[in-house]
Amino acid sequence: xxxxxxxxxxxxxxxxxxxxxxxxxxxxxxxxxxxxxxxxxxxxxxxxxxxxxxxxxxxxxxxxxxxxxxxxxxxxxxxxxxxxxxxxxxxxxxxxxxxxxxxxxxxxxxxxxxxxxxxxxxxxxxxxxxxxxxxxxxxxxxxxxxxxxxxxxxxxxxxxxxxxxxxxxxxxxxxxxxxxxxxxxxxxxxxxxxxxxxxxxxxxxxxxxxxxxxxxxxxxxxxxxxxxxxxxxxxxxxxxxxxxxxxxxxxxxxxxxxxxxxxxxxxxxxxxxxxxxxxxxxxxxxxxxxxxxxxxxxxxxxxxxxxxxxxxxxxxxxxxxxx
Length: 323
Hints:
single chain, Stationary-phase Survival Protein Sure Homolog, Chain: A, 9-stranded mixed sheet, two-stranded antiparallel sheet, disordered N terminus, nucleotidase activity, SurE
């Protein structure tokens, strides 16, 4: 009897936290990180819809591309699916796992506007989880480029809370080659478990509130190297951070005179280290993830992009003669 009572309590507690989650990314629906996260979130009791681009779409920010043909003109990432397949579709054995021939932002909206209304009983989405990306997305310099983040703020625009997760495992991997949910040193598995821990805390704190996060508010989370890429780190600590600050960097153009060509690089500038908004006492994402060991950065952002009152007043004084 005691066993049955304990089992019932456990079942009720899991059910109380069970939420509707839209899971997306910019690496593609076939990426190992997103597949591991899908299964771990489902294992935690959540109703998850994975909806992601059919191919690698990193760096597309909030670009909103939609299919121009009912069928794929080129192969999906890892030929999964091949050219000639429909421009959107789902796994044969799981209609909660979808691909879309679009960008991360449009893929998220495909999930919101089509998949869930048509195949998900039109449930209310409690949270959009984007990622974990294969590669970090830190500082405004990468935040504004990232497709992972683009899918997140596109969802937040629509009133749905969102969290972008990015890992430090930058390899582009196919889940059929790399997925191993029982391997506790596999980075994708570690990241997936940490996503579940993080998301469950959000829902636990939500309680009976109608929203998991405030309207227009999102979170940007970056994980350090873990597991086989850093065997001293299998359970990174959470640290509150800010997007700007020490070591914050952005994309840079580097010219090579020998080859007469350009390469992509990163560099830090003063504009990325200034603190105009938020808690200026917090460390930067780059400092925590790149210059400490086994710590994950957690930054709060808002899609209210207006400058604060002080900065606005300064600019008004500059331009006042024109008005």
